[in-house]
Design brief:
Blueprint: H1 2-13, H2 27-30, H3 43-54, E1 60-64, E2 76-81, E3 89-94, E4 104-106, H4 110-119, E5 124-126, H5 132-140, E6 146-150, H6 151-156, E7 165-169, E8 184-189, H7 194-200, H8 203-219, E9 228-234, E10 237-243, E11 249-255, H9 259-269
Parallel strand pairs: 4-5, 4-6
Antiparallel strand pairs: 1-8, 2-8, 3-6, 3-7, 9-10, 10-11
Helix pairs in contact: 1-7, 8-9
Length: 270
């Protein structure tokens, strides 16, 4: 789905450019019985895509930006991101049910664990892996009382609003998403396809992408970190909220040209 969105944008700005989809199964796709942190973190999804770029098997790679490693391989770059979709997390429970006093919530994310226990102090979190449909089937089978997924993915798949489920978006101000959540990033070899990719780039989302990745870099955060962040661009300024552990949120803003020093200042307060 994400790849098709990128292909569609390329067709809009450059109808003469032909594209072909190359499907690459990553380690994160193949190994679904262990937490992501146990199989290489963000590299479980991005590593093989980057290898395909370096070896010429593919010319561009399409990523969920939140799953990308902070450091790209030498010789690779991100020249475009698509407009950010709904960044919120969603608590999903089967229709007609009510969460019990100590609900079992499915998530493999330390950040989501911290945030859901802030909302439901008695909640018990349990690891869950697999694609969206697999996770929803596990929920319907009663393996969990609820699960947490990203709104953007649910909407792209046409599942948001499925009448089998109650979908409760979490407040973005108190339940911060993963840095770069709901952003689709397009990676390529440095210096190749730059003009084409910049033509499909969303400048506001790209600035948020850079700012939130800088925050990850400065905090040395990996996939096992509970850090959350969400930024917006408005009237020439960048606004950002961030949390190191889901319990305390800090806020800052600055002019676009000053975003790097602002992120450094923000990190010092986390």
């Amino acid at each position: 789905m994400q790849t098709e969105l990128v292909r569609s944008r390329i067709a809009e700005v450059s109808p003469e450019t032909e594209t072909e989809t190359v499907i690459i199964s990553t380690r994160g796709d193949r190994i679904t019985d262990r937490p992501i942190a146990a199989i290489g973190g963000s590299g479980a999804f991005a590593g093989e895509l980057e290898r395909a770029l370096m070896e010429g098997e593919a010319d561009i790679a399409v990523h969920s930006a939140k799953d990308m490693p902070v450091k790209l391989r030498e010789g690779l770059t991100v020249d475009a991101v698509l407009p950010r979709a709904d960044p919120r997390d969603v608590l999903i429970i089967p229709t007609g049910t009510v969460l019990k006093n100590a609900p079992v919530i499915g998530t493999s994310s330390p950040r989501r664990r911290a945030e859901i226990t802030g909302i439901y102090p008695n909640a018990v979190t349990k690891d869950i892996r697999g694609n969206v449909e697999t996770r929803l089937e596990k929920l319907l089978r009663g393996e969990y009382d609820g699960i947490i997924l990203a709104a953007a993915g649910l909407k792209r798949l046409g599942i948001y609003g499925d009448d089998r489920f109650q979908m409760k978006p979490l407040d973005i101000n108190s339940s911060l998403p993963a840095p770069c959540q709901a952003i689709i990033a397009v990676e390529s070899r440095s210096g190749e396809f730059t003009e084409l990719l910049r033509a499909i780039n969303s400048e506001p989302s790209y600035l948020c992408f850079k700012a939130e990745r800088l925050l990850l870099e400065l905090t040395n955060a990996g996939c096992s970190s509970p850090i959350g962040a969400y930024s917006q661009v408005c009237n020439g300024r960048l606004y950002i909220r961030a949390s190191a552990d889901g319990s305390r949120t800090v806020f800052d803003c600055a002019g676009i040209s000053e975003y790097e020093s602002m992120i450094e200042r923000l990190v010092s307060r986390l």
